[in-house]
Amino acid sequence: MRTPVIAGNWKMYKTARQAAETIRSLADLVKGVQGVEVVICPPFTALAAAVEAAKGSPVAIGAQDCYWEKEGAFTGQVAVPMIADLGCSHCIVGHSERRQFFGETDATVDKKIEAVLANGLNCIACVGETLAEREAGQTFAVLERQVRNGLSRHLTSARLVIAYEPVWAIGTGKTATPVQAQEAHAFIRQVVAEAASPAAAQAVRILYGGSVKPDNIATLMAQPDVDGGLVGGASLDAASFAKIVRFRG
Fold it and tell me: Per CATH, which fold does 5-245 belong to?
């Protein structure tokens, strides 16, 4: 049985003070929740405050990105040991916004995953197609390429989580239907089985990301291959995110 993961990606929102306030509120709202891993990924500047605010609660803290070198003359970059030193337990890698705006490639995703896992953190690695790719019937080809080129060396790690995020559904208010989500997740699991092993495919958790909200999480989670959500805007409000965490009611 795969334990669901509900992760919030705050993107470039919230100061350290705002992050701490939100996490304290969230911690109260999800107190006592069983059988769900809860993760919040604030901006780098708020990580220390978030870790402090989350102490003693079921909320884990992660970073939104990292660099693969452990140190060096890389102005503006943040190494995984620095993230780990703050007390973070997770890191997102390969988010579509990193791919779209900041030159992320399957090759850099591979290196970042390796760095995250080598430092003992859990990695949420993102894959997904654009609207143009979906309309051109390339969804499966894109997903297979991203998994095989970016993730394949790491598919047997218990600390790797895959997030399927159709780029056309991120921040647009559009959501893949439960059938579309299940179809993509099942395909990703099939690729993992071929690239690694059937056992790895059954074990890996695959999250859905793309306009996840309290009113659609239950139908998404009812799909057999959807193991959680990577939540954007709805994670910025503690009450909204807590409802998603409590998707079982």
Answer: TIM Barrel (3.20.20)
